[in-house]
Structure to design on (260 residues):
């Protein structure tokens, strides 16, 4: 069996294909508004590039934080691949208790990460996802999603900085050799990368204080590896955690299993 997994974020949409437990292909696209036909053509071309026969795709699961894109993706998959898509929400059987004041407010990607984290790592845990926003989600030893923290992401912060400071040069996210920058570019890099590593470490410390116990810290998302190299708290970098979580949720809900 091959499973199509789609993680629709505010900036990027990540598409992957699993053959049983193996992630055999993955692609990162811009999260633009597209018609179902455009999405269908994109998928057909991607599968062709990945040498994946269309008739081998037996299921699809979608996590989305951009509601206007939900229908075009699900309908495009149905029309061009011939399979229905499972949409992730707090109403599905996720295998975890959501101890959030309003479970429907929790982003689907945050729930997916929590599910994957519980399958792969010991709880309690804090999962840090570096995307358009940085989310830090906490799962208790009792398999409860407790909630978490949302902060601006690296790219979001940099865009705001450049948008309000005309003379500052745009820089790449390369780790500088020292915290004390020797030029403007190094100073910006140090402020952003060391600053966000410090943000994550401090938040984890506060979480551990509230829980009165240490937590396993997992990082995922596009900038995870870069920040993890500067962090004293991040223990694991798992770039495909969200895609794996989508597979776990699909298998759980497809087969009616009560164990993940």
């Amino acid at each position: 069996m091959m499973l199509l997994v789609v993680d629709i974020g505010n900036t990027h949409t990540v598409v992957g294909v699993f053959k049983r437990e193996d992630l055999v292909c993955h692609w990162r696209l811009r999260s633009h508004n597209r018609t179902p036909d455009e999405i269908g053509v994109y998928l057909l071309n991607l599968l062709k590039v990945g040498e994946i026969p269309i008739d081998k795709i037996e299921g699809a699961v979608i996590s989305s934080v951009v509601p206007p894109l939900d229908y075009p993706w699900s309908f495009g998959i149905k029309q061009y691949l011939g399979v229905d898509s499972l949409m992730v929400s707090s109403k599905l059987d996720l295998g975890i208790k959501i101890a959030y004041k309003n479970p429907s407010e929790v982003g689907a990607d945050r729930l997916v990460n929590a599910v994957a984290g519980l399958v792969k790592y010991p709880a309690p845990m804090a999962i840090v996802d570096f995307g358009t926003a940085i989310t830090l989600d906490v799962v208790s030893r009792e398999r409860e999603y407790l909630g978490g923290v949302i902060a601006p992401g690296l790219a979001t912060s940099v865009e705001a900085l450049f948008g309000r400071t005309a003379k500052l040069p745009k820089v790449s996210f390369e780790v500088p050799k020292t915290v004390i920058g020797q030029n403007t570019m190094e100073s910006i890099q140090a402020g952003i990368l060391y600053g966000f590593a410090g943000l994550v470490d401090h938040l984890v410390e506060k979480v551990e204080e509230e829980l009165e116990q240490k937590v396993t810290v997992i990082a995922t998302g596009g900038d995870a590896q870069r920040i993890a190299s500067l962090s004293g708290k991040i223990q694991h970098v798992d770039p495909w955690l969200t895609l794996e979580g989508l597979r776990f949720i699909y298998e759980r809900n497809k087969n009616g299993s009560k164990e993940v």
In short: The chain has two domains: 2-87, 97-240.
